[in-house]
Design goal:
This protein is of the alpha+beta class. The protein is 48% helix and 19% strand. Strands 7-3-10-9-8 form a 5-stranded antiparallel β-sheet, covered by helices on one side. Strand 5 and strand 6 form a beta hairpin. The protein starts with a helix and ends with a helix.
Length: 337
């Protein structure tokens, strides 16, 4: 296969992965610069179809990749694909997410040390905004498959699945079923769906489809989860307000309830410094605590919220001054990473 044919096959697969619609020569001509005419592209596509790398689902439709086409793509183009723009964006996205977690944790540590109060850092992901665009199941080698989950914001997740040697699977049936059930739906809609039709599959297909769904649910759960870091929790115990063991226990128990804290420290839309004093926290365990928080919009990665917890008589001037420097702290850490 010559270089141009490889490029056309790669473009067809790239476009089909993202659109789940048959790809025509006009679409390729508009989006890619192959340096040839539409007629030449059609000829190349005809040869690819003749060789079994793509197929035409119905008359007058564009082409879609075949399993042979996907196999060629996976086996021979991985190094080239990894250099393509969308893969580089994916790598940068993963690195950015990792850096954000590091930044939240380090900022929480720094601001706790600076103020001598307990710091809480939360990354609030954008829940239920993205929808699954499509799911693809690729056989990497014998008995090993990869489930590729593509979201409508171009985020891509993948999970490896191994099966027993004797498994006889119909990947096309499983893939079509999953796309029919989850395409265009949010995580909440997908998780709450009825999947009783799986019981009609053969035993191997039923088991494999269940494994794929489990991995999809895990991806959705991770996307929806919020990350939280608490630094300097023991600092509260140094204040006389919490010298009573019972009072200290109540506060520590409240700080150990992750979901309640995430809800409490949810971002404020205006990103201003927000202060809640004692009962204003609407949490019995934190009725003797003041909380100062500020959120920062990280775009597609959601919001990060940094909060400080201390006694009601906390040094508000010191804390507010520290929060006013939050932007420069984040800038410094971004440059560091």
């Amino acid at each position: 296969m010559n270089k141009r044919t490889v490029e056309i096959l790669t473009a067809i697969i790239d476009e089909y992965v993202y659109s789940a619609e048959p790809i025509g020569s006009k679409n390729l001509l508009l989006k890619y610069d192959f340096g040839v005419s539409s007629a030449t592209i059609r000829n190349e596509m005809s040869q690819l179809e003749h060789d079994g790398y793509i197929s035409q689902p119905y008359t007058s439709a564009g082409r879609i990749p075949s399993e042979k086409g996907y196999r060629f793509y996976v086996d021979n183009l991985f190094r080239e694909i990894s250099q393509k723009r969308y893969m580089m964006e994916l790598i940068e996205r993963i690195e950015a997410l990792s850096q954000i977690d590091k930044i939240i944790e380090e900022i929480s540590t720094l601001i706790s040390k600076k103020t001598n109060y307990t710091a809480i850092g939360v990354r609030n992901r954008n829940r239920n905004i993205s929808r699954i665009l499509s799911v693809h199941i690729l056989e990497m080698k014998e008995n090993e498959y990869v489930t590729v989950i593509i979201f409508d914001d171009r985020k891509v997740e993948h999970r490896a699945i191994k099966v027993k040697k004797e498994c006889l699977l119909n990947i096309e049936i499983i893939t079509n079923y999953l796309n029919k059930k989850i395409k265009g739906k949010t995580s909440a809609e997908i998780i709450n769906q009825d999947y009783q039709e799986i019981l009609l599959f053969s035993s191997y297909n039923k088991r494999f489809c269940t494994l794929v769904l489990k991995e999809i649910f895990e991806v959705l759960k991770q996307n929806d989860d919020n990350d939280m870091y608490i630094k300097g929790k023991e600092k509260l115990l140094n204040f006389p307000e919490f010298s009573n063991p019972n009072d200290a226990r109540i506060v520590m128990e409240a700080l150990n309830k992750k979901q309640q804290l995430i809800d409490l420290f949810g971002h404020t839309e205006d990103e201003k410094i927000n202060i809640s004093i004692g009962a204003e926290n609407h949490n019995k365990g934190l009725k003797d605590i003041s909380i100062v928080k500020k959120s920062v919009d990280m775009g597609e990665f959601g919001f990060i919220t940094i909060a400080l917890a201390g006694p009601i008589r906390m040094n508000y001037k010191k804390v507010i001054t520290s929060f006013s420097e939050l932007g420069s702290l984040i800038d410094g850490l971004i440059k560091k990473y």
